[in-house]
From TrEMBL:
This is Glycoside hydrolase family 15 protein. Keywords: Hydrolase. SUPFAM superfamilies: Six-hairpin glycosidases. Gene3D superfamilies: 1.50.10.10. InterPro entries: 6-hairpin_glycosidase_sf (IPR008928), 6hp_glycosidase-like_sf (IPR012341), GH15-like (IPR011613), Trehalase-like_N (IPR045582). Residues 217-581 form the GH15-like domain. Pfam families: Glyco_hydro_15, TREH_N. It comes from the Bacteria. Residues 8-133 form the Trehalase-like N-terminal domain. The keyword NAD does not apply. GO terms for molecular function: hydrolase activity.
């Protein structure tokens, strides 16, 4: 498989990746950041997978059930045909939601006598020790005594010995597999699994029904919104950057990181978009996650946390795994949690303001959010003049990054707006002076007259795609000549066959050879806003064509081959896709209104 041709299934507790031939090659249980049960994605030989094998006469197609996270893989050979409906159960109960740490593969018999084999090969605890699998009376159990003791259980309507031995199975009626972290107290049946499928379908249809309809790109907006929801962790409100670890930004290189954590920046951006789509509960839970993280008023935010609010994310290397396509190292944990990035305060304040402005009369934690607002202003006022690592997490020396400074301005600007909502007039005057001071500083130091653009950092000639967000955050108007010339300079310097580099100056690992997908969306967004709308829409359609067969994006795209690279699916890419799609769709609506008036 040359591309990341996978679908994601999940239940806001964990997730699994299913290949376009129906093989589960990545799954961690019981939670997103637990150790893997299947990790063929990171090692073809020892990683472990759950494969459904058919002979070459079968045509295999794959799609999502519309407006759901249920993945349907269809196998057809002549008059023999069946479907696998893969999902992780999630539905409402009287108290909260049912989201057990398990996945279901429901086999639907369509016609004829289809034949398949199963290759069931769990490798618990990242395949660190030996996993042994046994047939018991009611289930198949797998266990490891390696580094740690761990188990998982497989229930099925098929012959358990035939399954484990990889013998041919003829499908004559509907059947199922249920693989879970816990032993079941009540034995599953085909009927019960069908009910789980239907309940899960209803949950996703109800959830998707809250997403508005747009004139254009409805399918892409819906799929991206569901993907963002799948990357949200219900228990605490955290939002993950991606569902995987160590998928490389470039094949054979070492930019491989664990993304199964909650970056304040990525999560806040995702929540803002989901909030704009009307999914208020996800946003409310995330804000509670933030409230819970800041118990002390002088405690600075980390740039990222574990999904269960862990503050220490020790980075380890799994030497025994080969890595995706041989791209070692495989890392778990992420040392970036120690970095200082001043932009997170502005991005978080932006979300707090968005939620309070929409619901300030109906916010349970309004007082706590006002407390956090004051705390953020205090931290920014004391630290905005300091250098940091920036949005791209340069591991070398700190610099005065333009994006970080702009987001410090955003923090104060949104805090002033929150103060207005709460009628805290004494703060407004004091904070306005600070907001003006930061704004002046950026105009004086980030603008480089030689290149006629705002550059990556103070005194630098280098371009950086993150500077494009100056306009989105309201720092500068789209038609301001300084912004227009910055967009042009970024296009000239960073665009490569319609895809964008984040930056081109060498970082700790040399020049990147893949495009960071969100940057291309940012660029398209900026092009549109400066008036080059036709060009922007053309580039948008081209970029959408680089998604995988299910409309999903990873973090990066290879400049030459256009293959997807980096962790998958990536919250960043999908939130930026939604922003562009809504922008274009709203434009269409405006034009239609004007036509009807004239």
């Amino acid at each position: 498989m040359d591309n990341l041709d996978y679908g994601i299934i999940g239940n806001c507790r964990s997730a699994a990746l299913v290949s376009k031939t129906g093989s589960i090659d990545w799954c961690c249980l019981p939670e997103f950041d637990s150790s893997s049960v299947f990790a063929k994605l990171l090692d073809d030989t020892i990683g472990g997978s759950f494969e459904i094998q058919v002979d070459d006469s079968y045509v295999i197609t794959q799609r999502y059930k519309k407006h759901t996270a249920i993945l349907i893989t269809r196998f057809t050979s002549g008059d023999a045909s069946f479907e696998i409906r893969d999902f992780m159960p999630r539905y409402r109960k009287e108290e909260g939601y049912n989201s057990p740490p398990e996945l279901v593969r429901f086999f639907k018999h369509i016609s004829g006598k289809p034949v398949f084999k199963v290759h069931y090969d769990p490798k618990l605890e990242y395949a660190m020790g030996k996993t042994e699998t046994y047939v018991k009376k009611n289930f198949i159990v797998s266990l490891t005594h390696g580094e740690k003791f761990d188990t998982c259980f497989l229930y099925t309507s098929f012959n358990k010995n035939a399954v484990l031995e990889g013998r041919e199975i003829t499908l004559k009626k509907d059947g199922y597999f249920l693989m879970g972290y816990n032993e079941k107290l009540f034995l599953p049946t085909v009927r019960k699994m069908y009910m789980e499928l239907e309940r899960t379908k209803v949950y996703w249809l109800n959830w998707s029904d809250k997403t508005p309809n747009y004139k254009k790109y409805n399918a892409q907006i819906s799929r991206s919104a569901i993907t963002l929801k799948l990357l949200s962790y219900d228990k605490t409100g955290a939002v993950l950057a991606a569902a995987t670890t160590s998928l490389p930004e470039t094949i054979g290189e070492v930019r491989n990181w664990d993304y199964r954590f909650c970056w304040i920046r990525d999560a806040s951006m995702a929540i803002k978009v989901i909030g704009d789509l009307g999914h208020r509960n996800v946003a409310k839970r995330y804000l509670q996650f933030i409230v819970d993280l800041i118990p002390d008023k002088d405690e600075k935010l980390q740039i990222m946390y574990g999904i269960n609010k862990e503050k220490k994310l020790t980075e380890l290397t799994l030497e025994h795994l080969d890595g995706y396509k041989g791209s070692a190292p495989v890392r778990i944990g992420n040392a970036a949690y120690k970095q200082k990035q001043n932009d997170i305060y502005g991005i978080l304040m932006d979300v707090i303001y968005q939620q309070l402005s929409k619901y300030h009369n109906d916010t349970e934690n309004g007082e706590e959010l006002w407390g956090i607002t004051k705390g953020i202003v205090w931290i920014v006022s004391n630290h905005w003049k300091e250098a940091d690592k920036g949005i791209w997490e340069f591991r070398a020396e700190d610099r005065h990054f333009t994006f970080s400074k702009v987001l410090c301005w955003v923090a104060i600007d949104r805090a002033i707006k929150v103060a207005r909502l709460f009628k805290k007039t004494a703060k407004i005057e004091k904070w306005t002076a600070l907001e003006q001071e930061i704004k002046r500083d950026i105009h004086e130091n980030a603008w480089n007259p030689e290149v006629n653009a705002f550059t990556q950092s103070y005194g630098s000639p280098d371009m950086d795609a993150s500077v494009l967000l100056m306009e989105s955050y309201g720092f500068i108007h789209a038609k301001d000549p300084k912004f227009v010339s910055t967009v042009k300079a970024i296009e000239k310097e960073l665009s490569n066959d319609g895809l964008l580099y984040r930056y081109k100056n060498e970082d700790d690992f040399g020049l990147p050879s893949s495009s960071f997908t969100i940057c291309t969306f940012w660029f398209i967004n900026s092009l549109f806003k400066i008036g080059e709308q036709e060009k922007a829409m053309k580039q948008f359609d081209k970029l959408l064509s680089y998604s995988n067969h299910l409309g999903l994006f990873s973090e990066d795209i290879d400049f030459k081959t256009k293959r997807l690279l980096g962790n998958f699916p990536q919250a960043y890419s999908h939130l930026a896709l939604i922003e562009c799609a809504i922008l274009f769709s709203n434009k269409e609506t405006e034009e239609q209104v004007l036509e009807s008036i004239s």
